[in-house]
Structures are given as C-alpha cells and as structure tokens.
Amino acid sequence: MASSSDDDEFVILVCTDPNNQIGADISNEEIVISTTDISHWDFPSILSFQTFKIQAHRNRLIEESSYFRGLLSGSFSESCSDCISIEWQLETFLNVLRCMFRCPLDITSRNFIPLFEAALYFGVEMLLLQLKSWFSEVSLSKDPGLLKIQLDDLIRIWNFGLEHANGFVQELCASYLARNFMWTMSSNFFEDVPYDLLLLCIKHPHLTVDSEKHLSDALFIWLDSNTKQLEGSSKTENEFSDILKQIRISLLPLWFASGKRSSGCFSELANESVNSIFRLMKVTTTGSINALGDSDLSHLRIRLTEYSKRMDLSGCPQITPMILLLSLLPNTHSFALALRKSIKEAVSNLEQADGSKYQISQGLLPTLSFEAVQEVDISGCLKLHLEVAIECFSKSFPCLRKVKAAYLLNFRTTTLYKLVQKCPLVSEVDITIDMNPLISSQVSVISSTSSSPVIPLAPNRPYIVDHSFSMTYPYHLGPSLANITKLTMEGRSDVCDSDVQYFSKFCVSLCYLNLKGCISLTDVCIANLIRRCTKLHSILVCHTSFGMNSILALCTASRSFSNSLTAKFGKMHLDSLASNLQLLHMGGCKFCSSTAADEASLLELLSQTQMLKSLCLRDTNLVDNALCNFSGSLLEMLDVSNTMVISDCTIINMITSLRQLRTLSLCYCLGDISISSFNLSMPSLRKLRLERVTPWMTNNDLVLLTQNCTKLVELALLGCKLLNSDAQCIISRGWPGLISIHLEDCGELTKKGISSLFNCTALEDLLLRHNGPGVQRNFILDAALKLPMLRQVSLDLCDASEGDFDLPDDEDESDRYSLRSVKIARCKSGRCNAGSHFAEVLAKPAHRETLVLVWNSRNLVRTVVKERL
C-alpha cells in the first residue's frame, strides 16, 4: 500500500550472494533491516545470514542509482513491484547502500575493485567519485603512513582498469607505482607487474628512485624473471628494449656497469654504459657541457622528484658539478642556451684555483627545492667539487640530515664545518677514507721523505663560514654541531686533538662515533670526548691510541668521574657509559697507545658492557678471564682474531642455513676443507676471503666458484698454488664488477703478465704478490689510467718482469687519478731484486722491506719499513 509521502515509500530488496556457500557460521534464516537506521547497521551480525531483506526508500534508490532508476521508474515489470531481488556479494552491496544513503565508507585496496564493479553496475555516481577521490589521495600522497595499497592489489586494480578501458585507473596505478618505486622493487610481487604498467611507470615524470643503479637493478630482475613470458607474447624485441632505453646509462656507478658485462642479456648495454662513463671522466668539469654540444641533456639529469628522500651517487666518478646543477634546475630551462652559459659561469666561478669563490649567486640559477630529500651519498664522486655540492645541497635540500662523502681526500675538517653551517639539520656525516697503511707503532721505519703538497692547502687561518660573518667558526657552529648524532671519520689520520676537542664541546647528542685509523689522536683526547658525549652507544676506535684513559672514562659513573689513571677499577657502575654500549670495536689498539689497555682494565670493561651486540677485541691484551667476565647476553658479533671452529660439514651447514650470508672469511683455519664446501649456491655473498685454506684450488674450481657466488664484489685468495695465468680471465669474466682483488701466492697467475684483470674496471683495491714474475714495469701507471676508481695497489718486486716498477709523479695528479697508496714489498727470496727505490737502504741487513707511498690531503709521503705490509 502506497504511503501518503514519497519519502516514506519503501521497496523491499531481497539480497542473496550467489557465490556464497552455506557454512557452519551462516544461518539459513532471514533477517529484515531498514535503511532508516543504516548508520547503525552491525555488519558482522547481518552477514551471518545467508539472505536478508532490506526496507529501502524508493526515491533515494532512484535518485542515487541509474540501475534502480531504470528499474523502478521505467517500463520494467519491477517498476510496480515493491519487492526486488538482488544477487551480489553481500558486504559489497551493503557498502553501496551506505554510500547512497550518505554514510561514510572505509575504502581499502582490498575492497576497491568490488566496490568499483558494483558502482559501475548499479550506476552509483557518488560511489564512483568517492573511489576516484580515495585512489587519487593515496596515489598522490607524500605521507609514507598513507601507503595503503599493496602491490598485488595494485596489479589487480590495473588489470581491472584495463578490462574496463578506464584510463583514470591506469594513470593513477602508474603514478602510484612511480612515486613508490623503491618500495615496489622490494616487494615479492614486483616480478608480477605487467609489462605495460611497468613501462608506463618508468616513463612517468614522478618516477622516484634513490639512484639509477636501483632502477637498473629492478629492471634487470624483472626482465630476467619475465623473459619466457615475453617471448611467448605478441611483444616484439624492440618493444621489450623500450624498458632498457629508459635507463640513463651515463649515471650508473662504474662498478655496477662493469659487473653487468658478464650478463649475456645486458652485456651490450653494460659496455655502452662503461664507455659513456669513461667519456664523461675524460672531459674537464667546466668543459663537459661544451663537449655535449646542443644535444638533449635529459639523459644526464639525476632523477629527483618532490617525493625523493635519498640521492645516491656513490661510486660515480663521472658526476661533475654541471651534472649536479643540471639536475636541480627546472626541466623546462635545461635546454636553453642562456642557461648553459649560466651553468658554465657558475661552475667556473666555483672552481677557481685559489678557491676564493665558493658560492653560487642567489639569482644566477633557478634551482628547485626538494624538501623530502634527507640523505645524500657522494662517496667516490671524484670530479664533484665539494664546495659546489655543499652550496647545491644548502639551496635544494633544506631538510638534509645524512651526508656520506667517503673516499674523498679533499673533504677536510674545514669542509665538514662548512657543511654543517650551510646545512644545519645534518645529523649524520661519514667522511671515511682508506686507513693509512703506516701505523708507526706497528712498523720499523727505515727511511721516510715527504714531497711538496700535491693539493693546494687552505691558508693557515681561521675558517670563515660566510662573507656575512666576521667571526671564526668556533663561535657560530655550535648549534649546528649539536645536531650531529653519528660521525664517521675512519682513516682520517689528519684529524688531530684540537679538531676532536672542538667537536666534543658541541656534539653533545653524539651516539655513534667511528675514529678507526685516526692515528693522530691521543688517548687523553679520546677519553675527554667520551666523557663529554654521554649519549654514546657505539664506538669504533680500532688502530687508535684508545687505552687506559678512555676505558676509565667508559667505566666510571658519569656523575663521579675521576681523571686519574690511578683510579681503581673493580666497582660496577650501572650508570656508566660502558653499561649502555651496543657496539665497541677496539682492535689493534695495543700497538698504537703508550697507555694500552691491560688485563685488569679489559676485565672491568667487559664486566660492564652487558648491552653489547658487536665486540671487536682483535690484537688486544685479552685473556680468558676477561672474556669469561663478559656479562652480556645480546652479542651478535665477536672478533677475537685466531680461529680453530672448521670442516666441510660445518661450512656446508652454515652456507645452507645462512642464505643471506654476505661476507665469508676463512683465514688460517685448521680443519679439512675441500671443494665440496663451495659446491652450493651462495646468491647473496658479496665478500669472500680464502687465506691458506684452499691450497687444492684449480682453475676449474675457480670457475665453479664464479658460478655459485655470482654477486661477489670483493675477492681474496691466498695460497692457491695450482692457479695459472688463465685464472685472470676466469676472475674478470666471472666477476667483472669486483672492487677489491687480493691474490697472493697463487701459483703462476701473473707469470705471463697482467691483462684480463684490467677488465674489472671498477677496481678500488688491488693486491698482487708472489704470483709469478711477469708484472710489467709500467703496471702501476697503466692501472691508474685504466682503473679510475683504483685507490690502493700492493705489489712485490718478486713479480716484476724487469725487476722494478715505475711510480706516479709526485706532484702530477693526472697520472694517478684516485690512487691514494702504493705498497711495494721486497721479500727475502733470492729472486727478488733490490729495485732502485730501495737503493738507499742496501747497506742495511736484507730484512723484508716495503716501500709505502701515501698521498694524503696535503702531500706525498714515501716511507720504507722493515715489515711486510
């Protein structure tokens, strides 16, 4: 019977789910509900029934749904009926009704497709708008907390949009994938991303990746897993190559591009990348933009978007100030001739020989601001002028918090001061360089000379942080240094007590400190730093003067510290700094300190470090009693040097169970180890050291190793006497991306000279000793030229084909690129000639001697020591 008011006219919707099986928790009975109290519906209770009837306002159904509009107001027989049957997924239909009656919906990636299908079928425009609004908000959000769509759901949504020819859905799927690509590539479902979606994503202007390497790695993985599927599809080979064409091969790290040359599918692209990198390295910084003429520069733009959080340029020696500046400019300006001129002028001003101009004029270039960027890594960017980089960071990355600039000799303490002054929010800094191979307390120096400086030194005067300040840095950097929580200065032998004393005044928030190899620091200085920085939980001080004073500072309660070395150990302090330490590495300190830790101090230290997770006591005065006195139960890493703990069975069990093992070192281990230990795949292994444990290794065994450890970047073999010169080719073909090679006492590996190893173009560290007397006289110069990332070379005169080696010029940097240290040893063997470099010490007894050349940030130091280094 019709009501007197249209608003009160109801229709009965009889709802069933045709796909729903009757389960133990589903009732056969019916339930009747009404849209008048729709906001209070109890979904779990309603959905416990197989069928339910809904009293719904007829007019509201007609107004909000084209389906019901045609059904209830058209010529259909149901238009006169007050009962309509609905067969649909019940929870979805209930949500459709809630939307039609203005109730809020909880849209998720799981129910997006069912709701979209229902909205299309029932013609509910309001629901379609809500779904589009939700998807747009999620896909465009910068808030990582709103990452609400899982990749498998996104793939289903993409396929749904494809089936329904919905361009809106497809565009937002590609946009979401592009903005969150770093998250996407780590998903287990990444290999299931459809080709068209992936291609649209990587062409999207908002594609956000930490580096070109990350994008390349992801695409290589996807192509590897989809090769068979692609071959069986209608796609042509040229269409597949569209994916690889999106890689900006000139911006790949050299080690990464070199490593991919062994991959059959990608070797051509890798070779093209290596050649491009070398071309960029040959042109001068200011001349690089001229060398490109009027060509499109988009392939040189570092990928930065408003969603970027990290910029990783590590291992890219080809990156110049021009490339960095170009990447920070609006894309619409990057091709204008006037802008090219501005870039050249800016870079030229920033690179004057006297270093007098370090700033970019405020209005010279319209640089963009990327406020989401918090981390930058420029390690190994040899052609990147640091002052230019810091200026760019200060203008374009206002929220920068982490800076890693490892293996850059020209990054000095004054550069650090400028960084924290220009980028005051920075809290983590890493300026690691290679440790000086000469630690005076560990070697006997026969002779030592120092050349004139190879890099112009800044005047010996207080550092002026900006033209607007008239005072020196100690009075203005305090607030900025106070933000530093993690400081890594590993290998910085030029850091002295005065530098650290200044840091300790202001770095009150310091939690992590790495001073490994800072041999110029005294024990007293380190102790004072520890005493001031009471929040420290991680300390790395291997090969420093860390000793009794420093241990006393760690073990004494912070509120009652005594400065006297005569203070007695033995009283437990629960509020001491040692009680909160999580990481302590102090290996080798007994050689460097006149106040080296004794047994009593180590015993006391270990008794208080109950929270330690990582402990290195290599080459200390450690005794069993001290180690037994360790009170912690959280230890994950312990280094006490010598090993006994190894057989095939043990290694096989370890490799089988530790599938994520990245570093394996077997050195001077007792036990029975055979090729069986390495007959298993180790897909994650990156570093392998086998020293005096595999004397049986042949070339065939080495081939097997390259097949089972495909991702190695560091290799050390010692005592593999059955290897011959063919092993060079096996190594360079199997692991062309190696950055470190140590080969010693390995048969006749270099008897016919060195050639194939030059194919490992990303090498940074190379040691070749006692492998056969075929190493060319000009090898060091040749290696420095062909291996631009090479920092360390270690050779033996035993292997010199002409009895000696030519050395780089003291003051000419052009013939040594990034070379930092050269070590040439002379052993007791009769076949080892004296060599002209040892002529001055021939009158002395014929002990083993090593010539060490070290280029630091100031000059070249030549030293001859008795020991073999």
Automatic annotation (TrEMBL):
GO terms for biological process: protein ubiquitination; SCF-dependent proteasomal ubiquitin-dependent protein catabolic process. One of its GO terms (cellular component) is SCF ubiquitin ligase complex. Pathway: Protein modification; protein ubiquitination. PROSITE patterns: BTB. SUPFAM superfamilies: POZ domain (SSF54695), RNI-like (SSF52047). May act as a substrate-specific adapter of an E3 ubiquitin-protein ligase complex (CUL3-RBX1-BTB) which mediates the ubiquitination and subsequent proteasomal degradation of target proteins. This is BTB/POZ domain-containing protein FBL11 isoform X9.
